[in-house]
Each structure stands twice: as structure tokens, then as C-alpha cells.
């Protein structure tokens, strides 16, 4: 990590004082408001999806709305299994009240967020009886942030996953049903039969059959991987089997995991102690032609996100940033619970670290047709069609949370072919995927508040996808992360736009 100059130290100290002040406000609000109690009150206390009374301006129109679907509260605690029944203690692993996280999310520009606390023995009961009433209170205190209900699911045979429940009157009961039936650590005594891939597939099929379909997204997918292309708890085969079982539920993984502030306290980005992240991104995403491209090359709608995994802020000895302070997942949606989930489900997503940019659009057009991120354009094979790719990004107007004014030094256009399902469920490469063009500041032009890049894909004859990434660095490919400051190594990634040739 580079040595800080005196003015940087002063700025960091000022930032720390501000963070402590905001955290204190959150704790005060949490203590001041009475609990919302009882299942009968839930339906009356909450605004409904589409109710825009407390939304920001423009809530009825789709726009890029930043969020975070992986945030921990004091309900990521510990369980005393020597007692009967099991006794839960708050604050053992993460320390902040739900409302504190919501206040910080609002402060750092998030429109939506999700509390994802750890499970454990009989945790489904803790969730519905203790954590959910606190979520309802937080929704009332911080209505500007849409706050989803869910958890960090102890996925059978896999590492942790987001389990995001749609906003509806019985959301708490829905999570209770799924957690109590399928979370591998919820049963007490522990049931080894819950920790199998077959149980994970069963869970996904049940979730897909529900009237209100949840979303499932893998967390820190390579954190347990011992090397590049060598996987740990999460494997390509399991991703494929799960996505086959519920393609509209099991939709992707974190491209950029949380715990990005680790190097500020001498730790590893993402907590990846076995094999590192690359520019803050998981190897499954960062390696061009790697696992993500392998899944996209089968035609799967498999998306990436970026989260904080916030437990304890780095200024208090943790390895985390606040929600939205460093990582953001942007979804093109209305300020509406249902449309945010629709945007996530359908890949209208791009991600950034360090607020490198604040808007990103990738459009494919041909023969009068257009498609944007997550969408598909269909072209004719007999016409040997050219496809125009337009990349439009907007730089940050001001300073990021570190007091920096980050600048984009390069943008890459990455293209791969879609060749259909792989015969090898363990496949983790797509040899057709390449960086087809690299663009520097001389290659983009200013158009209002945006920078615009255009590139033509000539004679597209096969099903194809295109995705975009950009960086503040001069690295041709993201390098393995060490102890560099995360603020000096910023990237953004789009999800893909698809071209179907018929």
C-alpha cells in the first residue's frame, strides 16, 4: 500500500469523523423508535410496491438506481447451542442496527438495499420474530431507500447466497418457509441430509414454483478457491445445475465481492485468503474467456453484481465499507420494489467500484433494431449483418467517498460467441471470447454530460454477446490484488447485450 501524503491523512481523518457521526445518528434512531410488533400489523405498516409517496423524483420512470443486496446487521450474531431451546445473541459477527445500514446506504447514494444476515440453528425463528420487525421500523425511518427482506442463505452444498424475497404482505412467512425447510444450518441438531446438491436443486425448484419468485445470487464465489481455475465450495457444475432447475430464480454471482477495505487494515480484498481477486473482482468474472464467459457462451442469462458484504467498517477494525461507499450495483428500474427485482432478474445491471462512473449504457443496433444491457437483438444471417455497439458512460461529477475525482483511463469491449450448452458441466472457458477493442480518452467524444464510444462488429454470422469494462488503471488485464489501496484500483463492468442471428 502506498504511503499517504499529509493532506490525504487529514482527509481520511475528516472522512472518519463523518462516518462516526453518521453511525451515531443511525444508532440514535434505532434506539428512539418503538418496535413494530406482531404479524397482524405488517400489512398495514408498509407501503406497497408501486406506491411512490416517499420515492425520489422521477420514481415512475426507469433510471439507473444504485443498490446493494449483501449487507449484514447486528442480527448476524451467534448461537448458544448448549441451551434448549437455542439462544441467539446479537452483534457477534456484524454490529450495526438495520436502520444504521439504511441511513448509510442513503448517505452514499443508494436507492435500494437488502439486509442479508447469517443463518444458523433455528435462525428462521430469529428472523421472523426479531429481525423482521426491525426491518419494518427501518423502512418507516428511511423510506427513501427500498429495503428488501431476505438473508445470506446457507445454500446446500455451496457457499453463501443472497436469498431475496419479493416485497409482499407475506414476505416474512415466505422467507421463514424457505429457510426453515432448506437452509443447511437451520435444523438443530444439524441434518447432514440438508447439505447436498440435490437439496439445493430441490430448494430452487420450490422457489421457482412460488407465486412470488425470489432471487438467488452466489456470494464471494471463489473465496474458497485454492488457485486460478481451481474451485472450492462453488463449482461450475453446481451453477449450471442450479440455473437449469430455476433460470428465473438462480441468476448469477457477485462479480465484485464485499470486504474490499481489507487492505486498509493489512488484509486481503474480499477476504480472499487462498487465491486473490483481480482488480477487486472474482476470478470467475475478471478472467476474459473464463467461467462467466463460459456460462454466457451457452446462452445463459447469468448476471454479475457488486456488494459491500458490510459487517464492521474498516475505521473500527473491520474490513468493510458502508453500503454504497465503495461498491454499487446499478439496476435500470423504477423506484419500485417489483421493478428493481425485475431489473435484477433480467440483467439490466452494471457495477462499479469507487464511483469511477455514475452511468453506463451499452446498446447494440442493426437494421433499425436495438437492444440494451440484458436484452437481445435479432438480425438476419443472410444479410451478413454489421452490428453497431454504442458505449455511453458518465463520469463522476465531484468526489467519491475517499475525496478523489476518479478518471477512466480505458474502456474495453469484450465479445464472445454463443455456441449452446456445453457437453462438459465443469467447463470454465470460452475460447471465442476476446477483447475486440480498447478505447482511451482520444477515442471517446463528449455529448452533453456523457462520453460516447462507437464500434462496429462486422459481418456478425453467429449468436454473440458483447459486454464492457473500464478502469482507472493502466493494466491491460486486471492484476492479482495485493496490499494496494482499493481506491487506486477501480473498475466498472456491464452485463452483456445479446445478438441472435436467424
UniProtKB/TrEMBL annotation:
Region (Disordered) residue spans: 40-67
Transmembrane annotation, as ranges: 20-43
Alphabetical UniProt keywords: Membrane, Transmembrane, Transmembrane helix
Family annotation (PROSITE patterns): TAT
Ranges of Basic and acidic residues composition bias in the record: 44-58
Descriptive protein name: Phosphoesterase
Source organism: Micromonospora cremea
